Amino acid sequence: MCGVDYRTPYTQYMCYRLLLSGSSGSRYILEGRKIMNPYLFALYAWTESMTMHVTFKKVAKNSSTDQMMILRGELCISTTELLKSLISLEGNRKGKFIRLFLQSLFRTYITQVPRGNHGDFPMSHLYRRPYPDSTLHDIKTGDGFIISCRQWKCGQNPWVPEEERKRNPVLLVNGHSTESYYLPTEPNDLIRTLLEEGHETWLLQTRLHPLNPSNNFTIEDIGRFDIPAAIGKILELHGLSAKIHLVAHCVGGLAIHIALMGGHVTANHLASLSCTNSSMFFKITVSSRVKMCLPLIPISMLILGKNKILPIFKTMKATPRQQLLKSIAQFIPRCERCTCDECEVFSGIFGNTFWHENVSPSMHHWLNKVNLPRLPMAAFPHLRKICNNGFIVDSNGKNSYLTHPERMALPTLYISGGKSLLVTPQTSFLANKYMMLHQPGFRHERVVVEGFGHSDLLIGEESYKKVFPHILSHLRLAEDGRRNGGVSAEGLKCSKEALDWGDDPSYEAGCEGFWTWVSPSVNVWFANHSVFCQGAVLPKAFPHLLFKGITTYGWPTRYWFLHGVIEKIKHMLGLKSSQAMVLNAMGYDESDGKITFEKETNKICFSPPHDHLLPRKIKAFQKLTRKLGGVLFMSRYRSTSVHLLGGCNASSHPSDGVCNPNGQVFDPKFPPSVHPGLYVCDASLIPCSVGVNPCLTIATAAEHVSNHLVQDVLKYRTREGIEFMGKTVEQKPNLIPHRRLDSSMKPTVVIKETMRGYVGGMPCSAYLKMKMNCWNQNGFDERYQVMDESHPLLRGKVGGYVVFRSVEKDKLHVIDGDVDLCGVDYRTPYTQYMCYRLLLSASSGSRYILEGRKIMNPYLSALYAWTESTTMHVTFKKVAKNSSTDQMMILRGELCISTTELLKSLVSLEGNRKGKFICLLLQSLFRTYITQVPRGNLEDFPLFHLYSRPYPDSTLHDLKTGDGVIVSCRQWKCSQNPWVLEEERKLNPVLLVNGYSIESYYLPTEPNDLIRSLLEEGHETWLLQTRLHPLHPSNNFTIEDIGRFDIPAAIGKILELHGPSVKIHLVAHCVGGLAIHIALMGGHVSANHIASLSCTNSSMFFKITVSSRVKMCLPLIPMSMLILGKNKTLPLFETLKATPRQQLLKSIARFMPRYERCPCDECEVFSGIFGNGFWHDNVSPTVHHWLNKVSLPRLPMAAFPHLRKICNNGFIVDSNGKNSYLIHPERMALPTLYISGGRSLLVTPQTSFLANKYMKLHQPGFRHERVVVEGFGHSDLLIGEESYKKVFPHILSHMRLAEDGRRNGGVGGESLKYSKETLDWDDDQYEAAGYGGFGTWVSPSVNVWLFLALIVMLVSFYL
């Protein structure tokens, strides 16, 4: 009860170790620890002392055949059980036991007296293995700073064969000050490991190192000067043809990416890159982010003054300023405290950089007493900017690096610690996806090592077993690629994987949602701006005008930069230059170039046309250069057009050109008339290249126009200008009143809005200018009040631009945009939407669509009003030019407007009706959040197509169950479907089991419900209508009764008609799935009769959302049973008569909060009892009408107490609350499919995750699948309009595989792959990413107040 680890003397452990024996003869070991850490004093004391972290292992009888099973989880003791434990204490010294136990907790949390000390541990084995000799090189950087680089030659290792010593050298770059590679106390540090592998190793000691401390530098300086200097030194010794492996940690990794993406180091000299807890992204934990947001670093810089170096060793003299900062650092809270003063100061500044239990005492002593005497802190302000942005920025905080992915042409490996307290695994996740997207031709890997923190990835005792093998494997693959002449084809698989920008499965809760990422076309765009040749006839002196190596790119990549500089110097000094030759290639481009004018900067911007022949031109030039043996210089700019044509194309109609065939310019206001006297007579009339020098063609066109010009002038003169002048005088009076009429009849309000956020995980900013009421509507106010549509003053056009550097380097200009600040969806009339739709154009010629919605939902009144009205949910898509070749890009994210920007928008309002605009906007918000008056009604939607398609005939069978209750089963014979072939009708029958009362399969209004889909597939279909169904309501039953009696009766009926050899496919939803598992695992149905099992939002587990869990914990269900009395059936239809008790319960249900409200009373009552069973925008109006007005007249509620026990336990239990089913996995010998909705408000995706892992573990010989369908909730998985496209194919595919297995005599060998996957019992990526997060929006205090209000209502009712 008071265990101690000498490495963490402040922490108390309650340790348990149990050897368990099962009736089957198997043995298991359960090891558990309660970890009590004095973090923030006793804030977490209750949780820590109640929660045991458990590891459950199976003892293998035969190590060669038995598979290892390791499960991890938590066991908690409730308050009730704790009180029972204290009351049931036995023994004659129980008083002393309680006193000693409380004393230990008081020492841990209050006095915080350590138990033991790191310094007490014997250091006899310190430096027991001699370290290989090394050479220290002093290097002068480009800015004149002296750094050092330590070299270990591989030849000093005699056991490495000679041929293996030819491997590329490795350069190691440390993090911020602390040493991670050179560890004399450790027998297996990374340097020793690399030398044994055969790599010459270099360790860079930058200006961050205690040996070379500086008072004025940034991380950018390390990337710009230190790293290039070290690489230059290595290349100087090994030759320019050598390639270097880079391994970097933390800040060193940031500097490496700055060096590469800033162009200070070329990727041509690098063999590979490996980074630990670092990348071009730098995502830190919440606690670290809070520290970075607070002004701790500016205050620290102010305290230190001019001397930015902090002495760490106690033996070193410190100034009063430095002593003050060390005292503040010791006061900062951290997760693990330490008895070592130096470690306390360092962790106070950075946070816990390693878990003490992962680091040996000798390593801890060397780090804190030998390695780090002083800490240079000058780079902290720059580090703070990087942390707050989440990616590398320059010292001014600008994004100057992520816009250059083309410079990262090398294989990469990113490693994260799975338990880091500083940098989250999202850092490596984003970096890996970024590289897969932008450099698909190279191998990119990402690893998350469980149990490791930050620095202990490299300095931990187990690092050589769990971390170093990944680095060495990455180096070997890069070496193999070098020997084979390039990257292996295996690496090319990344190009397709990059399109799957899903959520990070290794990142814990709180990770931002990612769906997709930037299309590889972005990489192509960058490439097209990297290497260009000049396609033109140029004068002789042109080569001197090109500053070779500066304004051009060179090929081949060796000495071209130096050659260009020397040539420029020769030219300036008048010396003889090298022989130069101008190469010219001619061809057609796509004629899609544009010239635009920026009003803000008064700049003319040119967007060059795409040249699809450019790669072929470059290859031809490179081939010539290779033959001639010279250096090729190519312009940084696009192919040049020396004969400019087009721009004012001649056409017969204004829609196709600017001028008519005579050169007269069309008047767009009065087509097809022209502007009198305005002509175009130059090359811009000619729409495209004529293939030869166009001088004569231009002259001919000009002559043609001049002839017509002369004729027109003569006509005007002969008419003495009367008609011309008359026309001119006629137009002027009409134009002025027309404009005044526009200003009076079309009043506008102009709003400027600036939103920033992350789309697809990348920073994005939108600078919008909205012009409201852009069209005339007479009598609009009254008409739209009747139609519940938004006022025209709340709708308008959008201009402006979007900055999204990861997609396009330049601005994305809005060429067309619409906004509606009070949008309404008739399916969700209580919700207000602010809808934006923008068509964006880039200078590259690409076009994009940005669609966004601010969703304002009156959930818990106006509790979330501010967040909802300032947050826009965005979908960013690329418009594919060629659907057959262009890849689809869809990014999702959020853009937010800050309080400051919102105030700026309000202040900068322009227009003559801005007062009314603000009034209308506030009225709409007041209606949404306060009065909650719906806009429109689902019932107003025309239901003319209800039952438009006749439903197949069926037979109703009445069944008597084992306990004497009558249930029914409806049968659809497949032979009624004439287009199904005879041989296909031999498929096994399907039995469907509904959820709690609501119909999910038999939907007469829908053309593609599951029953119709199964009949078309060739399956005879049966629909079980249990005692839960409104046709057979019962006043006394449980879910267990359905599994024990109803389901066996239905299966027995099918077997009676088809024979005992037939097998049945089971499909169940929600409570039906619980009953199916009770029937199978309770032994009431044999798996021998089942062909497959498919469950939607259900399994043997039943994990519900937080809001549903709170409702289940409150005594709402017992009180509901008390209100109903003996009659446990609740009438739902308004037309049905209800008793006062039932009316009271329906009133309470209407009062319960739910995320989506509905004007339909039956839907309101049902969702008040259960919660939102579906998202209204997924369900058609016809299904909504049929469900609430036809399908469900009454609701049997007798099974609610049993359902509450299942929900509170999280898995199926019997009616007494005992676990009688999960202990029988051997009865589940069948293939399974578990489907969850990714946006469910009732049952979380963890339900299917746990079930799938359970089945893979206990039944590895069968196929088991799990699917999470994005955008769906609970019942809409089966009743949604898109269900037949997105859900039913999974069910049908699962049945086909089961049928194929039956025909082949069993399950295919493919399913056996699950036997090893069961060992990976990791967190659910959907649960971790925040799916089902809607349930967490409910504050428990709200439910408590509702419960109190409910009690008051009940008391007033009975009194």
From TrEMBL:
Biological processes per GO annotation: cholesterol metabolic process
Keyword entries, A-Z: Cholesterol metabolism, FAD, Flavoprotein, Isomerase, Lipid metabolism, Membrane, Oxidoreductase, Steroid metabolism, Sterol metabolism, Transmembrane, Transmembrane helix
Membrane-crossing segments per the record: 1337-1358
Top-level lineage group: Eukaryota
Protein's pathway: Steroid metabolism; cholesterol degradation
The keyword Lipid metabolism is annotated on this UniProt entry: yes
Domain Glucose-methanol-choline oxidoreductase C-terminal: 633-702
Gene3D superfamilies: alpha/beta hydrolase (3.40.50.1820), FAD/NAD(P)-binding domain (3.50.50.60)
Cofactor(s) needed for function: FAD
The protein's name: Cholesterol oxidase
Species lineage: Eukaryota, Viridiplantae, Streptophyta, Embryophyta, Tracheophyta
